[in-house]
Amino acid sequence: MTSADGPFPGRGAFPYKLVATDLDGTLLRSDESISPRTREALAAVTAAGAAHIVVTGRAVPWTRHILDDLGYQGLAVCGQGAQVYDAGEHRLLTSVTLDRQLAALALAKIEAEVGPLLLAASRDGLDGEVLVAPGYRRLEGSLPVVPLRDAADLWSAPLNKVYVQHPTLSDDELAAVTLRVAGGLVGVTMAGAGIVELLPLGLSKATGLSLAARRLGVKAAETIAFGDMPNDIAMFAWAAHGVAMSNAHDELKSVADEVTASNEEDGIAVVLERLLAGAS
Known about the structure:
Elements: E1 18-21, H1 36-47, E2 51-55, H2 64-70, E3 75-78, E4 83-86, E5 91-95, H3 100-114, E6 118-123, E7 130-132, E8 146-147, E9 159-165, H4 171-182, E10 187-192, E11 195-199, H5 205-216, E12 223-227, H6 233-238, E13 241-244, H7 250-253, E14 258-259, H8 267-278
Helix pairs in contact: 1-8, 3-4
């Protein structure tokens, strides 16, 4: 925590009651660490009376270790808004699952348009596994997955989301086609490089964030949000102020209230330090 004689002396009230941060490409650096400067800025914000809430596309099993490393005890919004997780009590407060019949129909429609897809899926629950079919590309050193040997196993348990890739289409092209042919059946979002997702229809980060904020007694007008990908657009629309990282997708930058430095250059801390310095 930052004391009154630390780097933010003489500050008054911080202008927001809630600071919502995406993880990948935003709070996390490329090595999945959080810089000391950003940690200190977040500690100063919470010392000034605001709450920090993580809002991520990652499901709880892929988020929990980061929250534990932060010493994070509050609520977190995971799975693109599907899950509200109490990190202090290690329990799910809400969880929304994907209609598997609709998802299967959506996949059939997409494949009828563009040919076979490469698939992965995130199962529901605190310990939900991520299933990965042959050929699906994932980043080196990424979190543990379970190989999907039999396609029927994809639908054998409740899911939060299905990930789709295409052998030749770009992420933007695949997302556009998916939205056009299956957008009436499932939600469609792009959460990062190689990450186009099928979600429960109507679900977004704003859905989960609004539920968590209600539990905290905080309003949208009292929230500042940070993000880097199109899946953060709904969160920016909900919050009073949306800040895109300089490494953000152009689609998010176009709707942001401001653009800060990249996730590698402490972009969150740059904004929070400015706001803290002005709160005097």
